[in-house]
Amino acid sequence: MPIVKTNTTQIAQPTQLRPYGLPTYNTSADAIAAYAGDDQIYVLYPRKIEAAARTFLNGFPGQVLYAVKSNPHPSLLQILWDEGVRNFDVASIREMELVAGLLPGAKMFLMHPIKSRATIARAYALGIRDFSFDHKDELQKIIDCADDATDLRLHLRLALPKGDAAMPLSGKFGADFESATALLQSARHVSDKLGVCFHVGSQCMVIDNYDRAIGYARDLVNAAGVSIDSIDVGGGFPVAYPDMPIAPMADYFHAIADSLSAHGFANIAVFGEPGRALCAEGGATLARVELRKGSDLYLNDGTYGSLFDAGQFAWKFPVKLHRNRPPAPALNTIGFRFFGPTCDSADTMNGPFHLPADTCEGDWVEVGHLGAYGQTLATQFNGFYSNHTVAVLSDD
Ligand SMILES: *Cc1c(COP(=O)(O)O)cnc(C)c1O
After folding, report:
1. Which of 78, 96, 168, 181 is deepest in the core (most CB within 10 A)?
2. How far apart, in whole angstroms, are the C-alpha atoms of residue 12 and residue 29?
């Protein structure tokens, strides 16, 4: 009888319980145990993505458009589609071709206010009729490149008065009050459907900002003296990062519904464009500790990987330690700073990230909430990147 060592050769095999198009494991620990490569591992949690999609599809008082830029991974797009998301907010030729190729029945909205002529023409050819704009020259470009179409559904992007978003997005795009009134009047004649859209800023933790924006849209429509067919309240729905407590999504949905009826928009089409709230919690990065110096951990993912926001905006993310060998991690935690693998000093994330006090080389750190604006931002700088994305069914 050979001596069987029970604790060494139990490599977890991927279980294809649903066709996510990815190696699928029950836990991230299983995904780590099965991994023979040297890179970071990107995780998608299909069940969390499905839950977020259901929250919006069941609760948002209008049609849900997924903002593809927050994470264009084909498996994630497919999960959203399978759950019932039918509308996709795209910005570039590559995003629209990705969605059209993967999900032929999807309805796309080209909501980038400033597009190349080739982008507009390609969009029109692909059947896109919903375009946003924030300037008269862009309006003319759309008309030119869509062959003087009479079936355009145009969405005027408004610049909003300053709010309190964690990541403000006004300032780059949007027409101010005066030009917006003139643009509504001129666009009315060339559009089949006309609407307004805005973005209150990403990770908007002040629910009232939606009401303020909707009230502002009402003032504008009154000033223009034209009727509109739709209002698009954009994205901005937040996620609970450490030190950023948020209200339940249902509170946002109720506040938006109340505001729409209070401002006389109860009978027009309503759109929302969540990105972060649909996919942030559905993605995580598993990064290995290569070296520890005091309370500094050198990881194999960093600001040039999926952790750009942790460096650039000192954004905090939930962290958890995985160690698949004894001893069990210490129960007390300390605050760590992270460094990524590249030789660039901007590859620094101050955190602090609270992990077991004895965290050491060979341990894996799971950084959560990176499904939005995390994995999609990763570069190949310095030769550090990962092509290994897995689906994980449970987050225990
Ligand atoms: C980025 C973006 C979104 C998504 O924003 P979140 O804050 O991630 O919800 C929606 N609409 C437009 C036009 C965007 O540029």
Report:
1. 96
2. 9
